[in-house]
Amino acid sequence: MRTQVAIVGAGPAGLLLGALLHRAGVANVIVEQRSAEHVLGRIRAGVLEQVTVDLLREAGVAARLAEQGLPHDGFELSFDATRLRIDLQALTGRHVTVYGQTEVTRDLMAHRRDAGLTTVYAAEQVQPQGCDGARPAVTWRQGGREHRLQADFIAGCDGFHGVCRASLPAGALSTFEKVYPFGWLGVLSDTPPVSRELIYGAGERGFTLASMRSPTRSRYYLQCPLDDRLQAWSDDAFWAELKRRLPPDAAAQLVTGPSIEKSIAPLRSFVAEPMRFGRLFLAGDAAHIVPPTGAKGLNLAAADVGLLARCLAEHYGGSDAGIDHYSARALARVWKAERFSWWFTSLMHRFPDTGAFGARMQRAEFDYLCSSAAAQTALAENYVGLPLAG
Ligand code: FAS
Ligand code: PHB
């Protein structure tokens, strides 16, 4: 089998890259280790930056998003019982859109199927080959035999635990990592959200996030110990703790119901540099991870592949300037999102070593936000998403 760009991974990065390349007339094949059902079953992100919405529209995949996406002009911070609304629209002239990553993935998969593009699901032992040469390939096993896909380039869109970054020779990359000493316990429920906008809460019992997927489907998160186990969290226990942590008037609005998904996610900051090795390009979680506090993970993945698709199309148009600068341009934006996500996580969570002084610093930061339009603008412009690299 042969194509122009072999994409490893059918998450949002791989699927969006495939759609953008197809639109630019660049042939591509996606090789995914899991089944399509498994990929669709993941409950992840919920907030899209305008950059992401624009890329989905450019890829021709934004029809349902336009109908069902919820524009959000602001969100709330609550510190103990004090609440502050961050008015994104007034502070930046922009907004974000609430639309679940699951739905983005569903739309991208449907688009790929309707366009008749090749996606290999349930591929075993996927392996990039010859990335430092002129004829890279991806091999895998399926149906009891080996398969080989020859390509001009490979896009490693296979997430944090993928094979592409892991297959690079020692010394090819520099990595930077911070693992947070807590996780997020997430619950999805078909209950009306407690508030029309997201509420990010901080308090002595830990972080809380009240989010949503639609006016009838809520998504909640509680900061939990790293060694916490799902078995310790019945629905009743979750709702009771959420009520303790929400601001009182929001807690009074809480409608509880059976969880339709419950999971614990670890939090980490991670960057691998550079995001290119020969004819292999890394994009999305394969290259970087942010704590979900700032809602940046999915949006960074989209921005990476929006840039990579343009660079690869330019290559086939006769110029390698784009691919030669892809890594540096992508990383310039990645590091700013890493900083914001780390800052927001540090502000809103209780760390084992926060202590009395640390708690005062967090409260002082919140009080400064309450008193300063400049501070709120800085938060807002990072939350709606920094401009794409020029
Ligand atoms: P993904 O991990 O989504 O996709 C990679 C794909 O590659 C997967 O389908 C995987 O099966 C496949 N793959 C892996 N190894 C392979 C191999 N060897 N061969 C072939 N295929 C392989 N972000 C937010 O903005 N907000 C959130 O609330 C949020 N919550 C999250 C919760 C969890 C539990 C996790 C893990 C992440 C969360 N994220 C969140 C971040 C998440 O949304 C990612 O940023 C987003 O999925 C990135 O997309 P991809 O880069 O496509 O990686
Ligand atoms: C979500 O709805 O899953 C969500 C929203 C905002 C975040 C993180 C997660 O910052």
Describe this structure in words.
With 390 residues, this protein is of the alpha+beta class. The protein has a domain at 5-67 and 97-177 and 268-345: 3-Layer(bba) Sandwich (FAD/NAD(P)-binding domain). 37% of the residues lie in helices and 28% in strands. The protein contains 12 helices and 20 strands. Strands 6-5-14-15-16-13-17-20 form an 8-stranded mixed sheet. Strand 10 and strand 11 form a beta hairpin. It is globular, with a radius of gyration of 21 Å. It starts with a strand and ends in a 7-residue tail after the last helix. The mean pLDDT is 97. The structure holds arabino-flavin-adenine dinucleotide and P-hydroxybenzoic acid. Arabino-flavin-adenine dinucleotide is lined by residues 8-14, 31-34, 39, 44-46, 101, 126, 157-159, 162-163, 265, 284-286, 292, 295-298, 301.
Summarize the structure.
With 390 residues, the protein is of the alpha+beta class.
- Main sheet specs: 8 strands, mixed
Strand percentage, roughly? 25-35%
Major β-sheet strand ordering: 6-5-14-15-16-13-17-20
Structural class: alpha+beta
pLDDT averaged residue by residue: 97
Based on the structure given, which CATH architecture of the domain at 5-67 and 97-177 and 268-345 is correct?
A: 3-Layer(bba) Sandwich
Q: Total number of β-strand segments?
A: 20
CATH superfamily of the domain at 5-67 and 97-177 and 268-345: FAD/NAD(P)-binding domain
Low-confidence stretches: none
CATH uppermost class of the domain at 5-67 and 97-177 and 268-345:
Alpha Beta
Rg to the nearest angstrom?
Answer: 21 Å
